[in-house]
Amino acid sequence: MTAPPPSRPAPHRAAVLTGVGGCLPPTAVSNDELAARLDSSDAWIRSRTGIRQRYFASPGTATSDLAVGAGARALKSSGTPDVDAVLLATTTPDRPCPATAPAVAARLGLTGTAAFDVSAVCTGFVYALATAAGLIATCAADRVLVIGAETFSTLLDPDDRSTSVIFGDGAGAVVLRAGDAEEPGALGPFDLGSDGGREDLITVAAGGSRQRLSGVAPKSADRYFAMAGKDVFRHAVQRMSASARAVLARAGWEPGDVDHLVGHQANLRITNHVADEVGIPRARCFSNIADVGNTAAASIPLALDQAHADGVLRAGGRVLLTAFGGGLTWGSTVLTWPELDRP
Question: Which entry of 264, 285, 288, 308 is annotated as an active-site residue?
Fold first, then answer.
């Protein structure tokens, strides 16, 4: 005789945030330090970006060093040193080959653990969260360390005012564990997207196979990061807003249900415009861009770490994450903030 179906479905296996950590280089670089060389000013930079300082890694420091620092703090926050996989979102790996994540895992004492890089520029951390959630949902992993780490200063033309004042270096990380989709800290749903037809809006032209196989020596400017600022601003607002609305609809949340919008820290004006488009009061946006600049794939986990440490993120708060980056790429997810110890 066939057994009757259960009265309620089994809980859906989900990725639950259980630890958070961050790491910044020791050297802060103020606007005033950049302004003289760039024929600019602190007031000009702040008015257009919302940034007053950023951190640059010192010679001898690599992306993996910052990733290890953030990863170690996230593991400590989670209460256990063990995970089944390490995912590193970065645009600035230590080397073109191999991936940086395995070296980070080994330095954290996780030799033998699955480890790989995720490349989606400033959306990389959200893409990595979705990938980690997939590993957990399919039982390929029970615990995953997800890191966003960048030394973006290595890609910047120091004489380009449009980019060198915006970006900084840093790393942030979270630990995810398998849990119930209904419990605090559970991630999801996700919304992810891309538009490769606009790949040239955010790019480093030289160094890849297309340039190397072109038979043409790269120009000096091609070795540096370049961005079509006005077009990027417009697409960032449009894509992040649409993605945020989509993920809220899938989660069954109204904009008014969101306690905190933690977006990619690209530009304070972008964050404010996204909040306006989605219908979330600007006062509910957490931003640390003034202190750290745009740290690309590291920006959301660094913001989460600071907001948690400052007591802004409290247990039970509903949090919306949304990002936009090169590719073009974009993505969003939601979670209810769990109870975590503060440092």
Answer: 264
Residue recorded with tokens 């600007």: 282
Question: How many angstroms separate the CA atoms of 167 and 153, rounded?
Answer: 7
* 292, 265 Cβ separation under 8 angstroms: yes
pLDDT, tens digit, 9 for 90 and up, residues 156-205: 999 888 899 999 999 999 999 999 999 999 999 999 999 999 999 999 99
As to burial, measured by CB atoms within 10 angstroms (0-12 exposed, 13-18 middle, 19+ buried), residue 38 is: middle
* 122 assigned to active site: yes
Exposed / middle / buried, residue 110 (Cβ in 10 Å: 0-12, 13-18, 19+): buried
Domain coordinates of the chain in residue numbers? Answer: 13-180, 190-336
Superfamily of domain 190-336: Thiolase/Chalcone synthase (3.40.47.10)
Query: Of 122, 267, 288, 308, which residue is the catalytic one?
Result: 122
- Say which of 31, 267, 288, 294 is annotated catalytic: 294
The DSSP output letter for 120 is -
Is the distance from CB of 226 to CB of 204 less than 8 angstroms?
Answer: yes
The rounded average pLDDT for each run of 10 residues, N- to C-terminus, in the chain (343 residues) is 43 91 96 88 91 96 98 97 97 97 98 97 98 97 98 94 93 98 96 97 92 90 92 97 98 97 94 97 96 97 97 97 98 97 77
Q: Which two tokens stand for residue 82?
A: 């063990």
> Is 13-180's fold the same as 190-336's?
yes
Alpha carbon distance 214, 165 (integer Å): 31
Q: Which amino acid is at 21?
A: G
Taking only the tens place, the pLDDT of each residue in 271-286 is 999 999 999 999 999 9
**Interior CA angle at 49 toward 47 and 51, to 5°?**
95
| Other C-beta atoms lying within 10 Å of the C-beta of residue 30 | 13
Q: Is 294 a catalytic residue?
A: yes
**pTM of the predicted model, to two decimals?**
0.94
Distance set, CA 256 to CA 21, 39, 211, 278 (Å): 28, 43, 47, 10
Active site residue 23: no
Spelled out in words, what is the top-level CATH class assigned to the domain 13-180? alpha beta
